[in-house]
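Weekly sync notes, structure subgroup
Attendees: PM, AL, DS (notes)

Item 1: joint prediction request from the bench team. They want all two components modeled as one assembly rather than separately. Inputs as received:
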Amino acid sequence: MAEITTHTAEQTEAIGAGIAVLLVAGDIVLLRGDLGAGKTTLVRGAARALGVEGPITSPTFTIANAYIGRIPVAHLDTWRLSDPDDEEIGLALEAIGEDGVAFVEWPDSIAAGLPEPRVSVDIEHGGGDSRLLRMTGRDPGTDRSLGELVDNLRA
Amino acid sequence: MTDPVLAIETSCDETAAAVVDGRRILSSIVASQAELHSVYGGVVPEVAARHHLTTVNAVVDEALREAGVSLSDIARIAVTRRPGLIGALLVGVATAKALAYATGKDLVMVDHLHGHIAAVWLEPLALDAPFVALTASGGHTRIDLVDDYAAPQLLGQTLDDAAGEAIDKGARLLGIPYPGGPGLEVLARDGDPTAFDFPVGLRGRGPSLDFSYAGVKTALLYVVRDLGEEDTTARRADLAASYQEAIVRPLADRLMRAAEIHGVPAVSIGGGVAANGRLRHLVEEGAASRGLRVAIPDRSLCTDNAAMIGAAAAFSPAIPWPRYVGEDAIATAPPGGIAA
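Output from the run, pasted for the record:
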């Protein structure tokens, strides 16, 4: 696990960009955190690093936003879903297939049906613009890379 | 009757069908699932798709009956193709394709946002280009320059949350049940919009016509947390009024700025947030002080409906029978734009 406190939205985006570098096609990233914690901000940084242009907006109403960067990028949000078996998420993941990566906000209602995430991120409000980010990798190699990522950003 | 279009819209909660003849609405039927979804506190896409499936035929029949036409009188069939919930869109697209194929008619596939912009083309507003259009809903917030109804040009859009989404999430923080928009507006009427100073998105960032609503949502979260339950309850009306103001005022301000920059004689609003009374008032006031014509549709044409899809169909290419058989619904909007 790696931890870092960010003090601006730009720093949270930089963490997202750093996570994006670790991803390969087929990977999933889970994001947990309260309303306004900065989940979409982190995904924005990741999507930019993956070559997506234009606004990266909240998928709360649309449930699933799809972007084409160097690889397909899906941004999903289960906030409005109450049925863990809902087909909408399945359809969106299917559309991404094995060629893209997916970021899932509020994943807990559907986590059981998802592949094991490459990275899980928990974000907590720290007052003002600061946020505490806790990141867990799927394997020791990913954890090590996450550790290097936060060390680089602190330096 | 000259050229009646049967239009179908199923992109989100509403199952809608309409018959539009030129600028005249002959019928507009909307079967809303809002009550159904309020049980769950939000839209359930799978429930939405199934509900569309069981409702769409009856809604189409009712639209034809109320318009006093039969399917054979219809010149073309139009349907919302994108963007929206994919399962929900598929029901409308499959229905429209089947009806058009079976009756040998051409099909027009319409972008939902093009529909919101084209709603003001219909009578009684019958607004002619050029104008600037604000479209604000749960999923979208944007301003377009409409020099030509066939090709609206994006001038600005939200960089994070949509205005309707910010309203909905704020309403949740204040304990207002889904859908939060109408409840927030009612509560705000008894409150002071200047009581709390919520950050207005992108304030002071020059002449941008973009929007940002992530910050105001977080600011409300902190205020509610700092006030505590008792004081939040006591000041709910002031909180609702101040929060609503921080969301709708930038919408009206940027729409006016867009009109000034592009020198157009008129402005319009559309989308579910355009049903908000405070926004309607601010836009009317701003337009009056600048001598602009303002086109504000009836609330039934702001929220999702099929008449607006029939209007946009007048400015979108018809796909001749039977070449649309392989065409599909698409969940996403094209980058930055509207797909004609």
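Discussion: Residues 236-262 of chain B form the longest helix (27 residues).
Action: AL to compare against the crosslinking data before next sync.
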